[in-house]
Automatic annotation (TrEMBL):
Keyword Glycoprotein carried by entry: no
Gene Ontology MF terms in the entry: DNA-binding transcription factor activity; transcription cis-regulatory region binding
Coiled-coil intervals: none
Organism, as annotated: Longimycelium tulufanense
Matching InterPro entries: LysR_HTH_N, LysR_subst-bd, WH-like_DNA-bd_sf, WH_DNA-bd_sf
Pfam families linked: HTH_1, LysR_substrate
Record keyword Transcription present: yes
This protein's name: LysR family transcriptional regulator
Family: Belongs to the LysR transcriptional regulatory family.
PROSITE patterns recorded: HTH_LYSR
Top-level taxon of origin: Bacteria
PANTHER family: HTH-TYPE TRANSCRIPTIONAL REGULATOR, HTH-TYPE TRANSCRIPTIONAL REGULATOR CYSL
Length: 297
């Protein structure tokens, strides 16, 4: 596997047009950078850089790999930012709680952007389900929360920051994956599903959508405490599930999961920031809310 430093080098060569300038940016020598780039090309069995007297530029293959590398580096930055925020939970200057979908896919990027603007800021992040996030905000244990729940209490202030959609997903071998017609809503309601625990925003959104469409509550086949666990169970063939497209987008693109159309049911939802009612957000909390509103999908 290519190491992260080699991927950073490739991206910098594309941006700066020179292995030497990229080496300086990384704090290494040009010979060492050239050796690292040659090693990366051998690993991938691709010519990534066109070296000339005027400098270095990426080949067409190098440009594609550089774009992929940038995505990997962004994900790693999100992982490190999220991990630091989790470690900083107790003594943070800004205390944040987020439901699992938001915490896994959006919050690290938002917090990372805030930290780049305010390098000295100490941010703590608690990850739990939407119901627990609301309680943490209500009790004053956190300054700002992010939830995916469709049921927002009147005693809290809230603001929509992003849109999301749930999808009914099955593994490729499931009978629903080969259906030409959409699954009927009553059929979905009657089918045992792999679901999140009560209190999860994903579970509440599904239940509310079924109720609006005139169906009964979802029939749990297996109840799990995280989106990742539900997704893994579906991939393993345990049963269908309803999950955020943020969580299963890569699986749908790669063919590990198949999205099933369902008649007469709306599975769209808003992702919202919440804070104590009647209070005006200021300082880092207000800045994070603004970042989330501008960056959220």
């Amino acid at each position: 596997m290519p190491d992260l430093e080699s991927l950073r080098l490739l991206v910098l060569v594309g941006e700066l047009g020179s292995i030497g300038r990229a080496a300086t940016e990384l704090g290494t020598t040009q010979p060492a950078a050239s050796k690292r780039m040659a090693s990366l090309e051998r690993q991938l069995r691709l010519v990534l850089v066109d070296r000339t007297r005027r400098g270095s530029r990426l080949t067409p293959a190098g440009q594609v790999v550089s774009d992929w590398a940038r995505k990997v580096l962004d994900e790693v930055d999100g992982l490190l930012t999220g991990a630091e925020a989790l470690r900083s939970e107790r003594d943070a200057e800004l205390r944040v709680a987020a439901s699992l979908t938001v915490a896994e896919h959006l919050a690290p990027g938002w917090i990372g952007q805030l930290r780049r603007a305010e390098p000295g800021l100490y941010v703590g992040l608690q990850v739990t389900n939407s119901t627990a996030v609301l309680e943490l905000v209500r009790s004053g244990e956190v300054d700002l929360g992010f939830v995916e729940s469709p049921n927002l209490p009147a005693d809290l202030s809230y603001r929509r920051v992003a849109a999301d959609r749930l999808a009914v997903v099955v593994p490729p071998g499931h009978p629903w994956a080969r259906r030409r017609r959409p699954v009927r809503m009553v059929e979905l309601a009657a089918t045992p599903l792999v679901v999140r625990e009560p209190g999860s925003g994903t579970r509440e959104t599904l239940e509310k959508a079924l109720a609006r469409a005139g169906g009964g509550p979802a029939q749990p086949l297996l109840e799990l405490g995280s989106t990742t666990a539900v997704r893994s169970a579906v991939v393993a063939g345990v049963g269908p599930a309803v999950l955020s497209v943020l969580a299963v987008g890569a699986d749908l693109a790669d063919g590990r999961l198949v999205e099933v159309s369902v008649e007469d049911i709306d599975l769209r939802r808003a992702l919202c920031a919440v804070w104590p009612g009647g209070r005006r957000l200021v300082g880092p909390a207000a800045a994070l809310l603004d970042i989330a509103r501008r960056a959220g999908p």
